[in-house]
Specification:
The protein is mostly helical. It is built from seven helices and two strands, in the order αααβααααβ. It has one domain. The protein has a two-stranded antiparallel sheet. The chain starts with 9 loop residues before the first helix and ends with a strand.
């Protein structure tokens, strides 16, 4: 492992995930209240409100994380914890190289796993987040979403 770009610790990744798990739903709730998608009982009569809330959650994720993911490979939680997502690339010596991951991989491959945390009621799908997070205990500390996207999370700031 490279001394300059060491792997992020499991605890930093956990805290970053918990922070993102607070920030994104909080902004989603605020936007849902501002836009009034579910103000009246009639709003629940059909399932369109679910689509609107889901789209608002995606918008919240992009508002909070879109720019920093694109420019630095970091969500807001990762910025706070001093860690970043990079593409897996190792040199001849086997050390990680800091190559920013393409935005499409971060959004289309990695971010797909985040909403799965909220569908725990569906037993087959509910196991995916569990398997995803348990893989972090392997030597390379890569979750399932890291393997799918070809990424690794490194520490970029020391504190």
């Amino acid at each position: 492992m490279n001394d300059r770009w060491p792997l992020a610790t499991r605890s930093r990744r956990l805290v970053a995930t918990l922070l993102d798990g607070l920030f994104v739903p909080a902004l989603t709730l605020l936007l849902v209240m501002i836009f009034g998608f579910v103000e009246d009982a009639e709003d629940y009569a059909d399932f369109w409100w679910v689509l609107w809330v889901l789209l608002t959650a995606v918008l919240s994720y992009l508002i909070l994380n879109g720019y920093t993911l694109w420019r630095r490979g970091q969500t807001l939680g990762k910025v706070i914890m001093g860690i970043a997502i990079v593409s897996v690339s190792s040199g001849e010596d086997g050390h990680w190289k800091f190559i920013p991951a393409p935005l499409w991989k971060l959004i289309c491959l990695r971010a797909v796993f985040f909403p799965l945390l909220f569908v725990i009621a569906l037993p087959p799908v509910g196991l995916i987040p569990l398997v995803d997070h348990l893989l972090i205990f392997r030597k390379q500390r890569r979750c399932l979403h890291d393997l799918v996207a070809g990424t690794v999370v490194i520490r970029v700031f020391k504190f």
